[in-house]
Amino acid sequence: MTNSLSIPAGGQTNGRHDPDKLLAAVPGLLGFVPERSIVLLAFSGERTVAATMRHDLCLTKAGAPSAGMRQLFIRLGALAASYRTIGTVAVIVDDRFPPDDQRYRRVAAAAHKGFRPAGGLSAAFAMAEAVAGADWHTIWRPQSGTPPHPFPGSVPDRGLLSDPNASPTALERAVNSGRRILSRRSEMEGLLSPVPHCADLLCHAEFPVPVRHQPGREDARGLEIVLAAVDRFGAGDLDLPCDEVNRLAAALVSVHVRDALLGLSLTARRGAAEDLWRALTRRLSGHARAAAATLLGHVHYMAGEGAYAGVALRVAQDADPDYNLANLLDTALANGMRPRELGGLAELAYDIAEALGTRLPPPLFEAAG
Question: Which domain of life is it from (predicted)?
């Protein structure tokens, strides 16, 4: 799940609601161009998307939504109801059949049924790909009564998609996060692919393992080392020689240091911290890689970037399947827990840092959603 921005559902043309702006905003909301997916946009206000939910589109051989998808719609519908949404729009992006194929209408009908606790669907659209000039079709509308927001009136039967890269949502994302829309979700995984431990000619990588202990001086020194590296990254110094990578790895395998660093996710240092966590995720292995990837996933989670958070947390789980915090955050993400509901982690982080003799910068941002 991705917590989203406030965006217009679209204007009106010849008395009809024009969904193009909303459809073109989908890649910007996700951070990547979806493929063979269904995207559900839950509205908390007439022009505000409260949550964006993307899932792989799973069809049976007969072309019907799989049993798993039907159960998914029921779970997501209950989740949308808990958000007090006033309407939901389904967008199918799939190149296996023509956009107006009856298979997609059946998927939309199943989604409407699952979302009944949240008022059902307002509309469903389908397109082969979410790129400029793609032919989109309105494949489903409620047969009776007034549809919920954001399209309580009629919408066109079809249209051509405007450029998602030029959508206000994509531009706002670029300004706020500095990230472009990726051409596919796998690019997110590529951003975390392993690289050499360091550029030193004589690399002597160390592989620290966690040891249960009470917080002490070693943790205090480790926290200082990591915070100093964050400051250097914020100043543009991205050099990480072998010895420093080893020191950072040793610090991150301490649960006390890691937990204190969670507090950076809502401060002015979160951009620099994100860059350092990403660099260390790529350079480290084992438990240290899991720690760095978990910190990265937490930063994305707090910013409402669910897709990026999910990829980072899966990297952490691959590095260490028993890494508890990664598993907990991944479960929270899968269950649609809002970032602001994890505020207790930040409070704990400040308490731990203070106990280690370090004062973290004050929070500057609020958790998304």
Answer: Bacteria
DSSP assigned state of 305: -
Residue 13: the pLDDT is 37
Q: What is the pLDDT of residues 160-184, one digit of tens each?
A: 999 988 877 766 665 566 566 776 7
Residue 45: is it exposed, middle or buried by C-beta count within 10 angstroms (0-12/13-18/19+)? middle
pLDDT band at 5 (very low <50, low <70, confident <90, very high): very low
Whole-prediction pTM? 0.80
Tell me the pLDDT band of 17, cut-offs 50, 70 and 90: confident
Q: How many Å separate Cα 67 from the centre of its chain?
A: 25
Separation in Å, CA 352 to CA 54, 291, 345, 355 = 36, 17, 10, 5
What's the CA gap between 160 and 155, in Å, rounded?
13
Amino acid symbol at 248: L
Q: Which residues contact 363 (CB under 8 A, 6 or more apart)?
A: 266, 267, 346
- Gap between the Cα atoms of 322 and 205, Å rounded: 23
27 conformational bin, left if phi > 0, alpha if psi -120 to 50, beta if neither: alpha
Query: Which tens digit of pLDDT belongs to each residue from 99-130?
Result: 999 999 999 999 999 999 998 999 999 999 99
What are the backbone angles phi and psi of residue 368, rounded to the nearest 5°? Answer: -65, 155
Long-range contacts, 175-182 (Cβ 8 Å, 24+): 177/303, 177/305, 178/271, 179/31, 181/27, 181/28, 181/31, 181/32, 181/33, 182/31, 182/32, 182/33
**Distance (Å, whole) CA 84 – CA 42:** 9
Q: Please state whether beta strands 16-17 and 12-13 pair in parallel, antiparallel, or not at all (unpaired).
A: antiparallel
Dist. CA 281–CA 235, nearest whole Å = 20
Q: How far is it, in rounded angstroms, from Cα 135 to Cα 93? A: 11
Q: Do residues 195 and 283 make contact, with C-beta atoms less than 8 angstroms apart?
A: yes
DSSP element (H, E) containing 242: helix 242-252
- Spatial neighbors of 147 by CB under 8 A, at least 6 apart, are 87, 121, 122, 123, 141
Q: Where are the beta strands (DSSP E) in the chain?
A: 12-13, 16-17, 37-45, 48-56, 87-93, 121-127, 135-140, 158-160
CA 150 to chain centre: 23
Question: What tokens were used for 320?
Answer: 């260490």
